Amino acid sequence: MEVHHHPHVEKKNLKEYFLEFVMIFLAVTLGFFAESYREYLNNLSKENEYMASLVEDFKSDTSFLQLSIHQLIPYHLKWMDSTRNLLEETEHLGKDRMLYQALIIGTAWTYDFHFNQRTLSQLHSGGFALIRKKEAVNAISNLEGNYKLFSPVIDEMQSMQNDIDISSYAFLDGATDYQAGKIAFEDPLFTKLQLSDVPATAVVNWQNKDAIMLYDNKLHKYSFYLRTGIIDDYEIFIKEITETLQAIQKAYKIQ
Length: 255
Fold this sequence. Notes:
Layout: H1 14-88, H2 96-106, H3 118-124, H4 134-168, H5 174-184, H6 209-252
């Protein structure tokens, strides 16, 4: 009969169990802190990325507004005035193509401002939770609030633009307007639209005097609104964006 000998296993004492527990506890705790720290660094990196991106957006907005005030609006206003002068002349013979050129360039709405939502949309989708600095959050929130007050001005401007566009259909040829406008839109300032680009077959219905007078009045009202209202509003908003931009740059040391 065989006798099986079981190996002798030395029992652990309480101290050894306690040490094992401590080691396991430390390992778990250190792992937790390591993961938390990695998450903290990741959130910090995302926060800085958001702020750097927001600074780029604000710089882009201010650049566009500056361009609009000092270049786009004055340029198109000059052609708007030329359009009105042509419409108000008593002799229109041979001036059809000139009117198309002036009208298309004058009523090119290249300066309509829309707040850059590229980064802000990401912030509103959960990114704001990562922004630790209250001064940055407050500055951004204040600017968004000001833009909500400013947006009706843009809406009103675009409503006037649409009304002007529709009014021109009564005395312009749609096909000619489209053909010349297509060339014009190849350049932001519409400088590519030369008189020679307007088809020789361009015809203006000068006989529709009521429609021309109505259009002239709408253009006069809009140009006055542009000179006395929109430019001032753009300058005010540049100031507000710049203040927000500076607050973020100061808080995050971004150039």
